[in-house]
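subagent[fold] <- orchestrator: predict structure for attached chain, return tokens only, no commentary.
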Amino acid sequence: MGKREHCRTSVLFFPTFVNRFGCGKAQCTGVPSFRIGHAGFLDRLVWPDLNRRLSVAKETIVNRSNRAGQIAELRKVVMWLYDKGRYHDALPGAVQLVDWSRDSHGSSYPELADSINILAMTYHALGQYDAAEPLHVEALELRRRCNGERSCAVAMSMNNLAALHFDCGKFGKSEELYLRSLEIDRNAQTLHNLGVLYHAMGRFAEAKPLFHEALEIRHEAPGENSSSFALTLNCLAALYFRMSDYAQAESLWRRALKIRGRVSGRRHPDYARTLNNLGAVYYILGELARAERFFMRALRIRRQVFGDIHGECAQTLDNLGSVSRAKGRFKKAL
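subagent[fold] -> orchestrator:
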């Protein structure tokens, strides 16, 4: 297939700097029946009546008529919460969605695979990898049965499982699945993710053209003012950072930060990840006060989104500790 983004993007992380600095977690992909933006399943839908929609979805617990319509309504709510980075809020609905889908569809419908995929991605985003992996595998097998081995849905599930292997440090398995996915559908999502993987493996020369190809596709659709375009900018900046081109890294990250602020909002985890990355640039350049401000802003957002006990909060705290040590504040660094 050509340079089209058939299976649009979803979520992704960005770890800290120094030895762990990179372009972070690879993106998972969402449900093929929806147009998907970066950190979620909706194409930037905004619902002022979210509370009403939540109430409608909850009514299905006691009202089992029109279950298909109720599942669709709950799926939209879960997707909206996920898109906003509210993963903890999305999780109960995602669990319920799978239960209802199993009850309504049995074990051989594409809709069940979509629901399982949503739950797997939610666990993945929360860092609960042991819970996510069997669900990603189940979604992949269902899609093979329902859609065929060379379908876009199968390519999406391969991408998602590869992203999980990446986050678990299983780079060989991750690369194999990404390459198989690209054989089916050469889309921006998987090109981006393979670039993330090669970056993490130190294969910078192979990563750079993948990011540029993904940017070219995303420039055409969904456009520069999109979270998926900002995500690839973010990761290309990280590559320049690793190559010690700090001016280029800062420029790209500032561009990504502006897009993420407009598209996702300034309390979204993606916005925090770019703040963290800019803090890393200023740390390396010796601008410690500036670095500390960016890390503190990132930490406040991450605590609101994830709570105190989460890898991204720990990473930013580690970054702040590095700043404190560089300033000679050793007690505070501890």
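orchestrator: received. Logging for downstream: The chain is about 70% helix and 0% strand. The first helix runs from residue 50 to 59.
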